[in-house]
Amino acid sequence: MTNVHKLFWDLPVQLQDQIASVTISLPVRKKLDLALTPTQLVARAPNSSTTAAPEFVLDYRHDRVEAAFLLEVPEKTKPQWNLIVAFTRQGAPASSFDYFQATLLEDTIKNVVKPVAGEQYLGSIKEMVILYFQRRNIPIISHETVSPSASLFQAPAHRGSKDGLLYFLPGYIFFGFKKPLVLFRLENILAISYSSITRSTFNMIIKYIDPAAPGDAEEEAEIEFSIIDQIHYDRINRFVTENQLHNDSMAENRRAKIDNKAQFPTELGRAHAEQQAVSATATGGTQGLAILDNDFDGSDEEDEDFNSDTKEDNSDSDNDSEDDEDDEDDDEEL
Question: What are the Histone chaperone RTT106/FACT complex subunit SPT16-like middle domain coordinates in residue numbering (predicted)?
Answer without folding.
Answer: 152-250
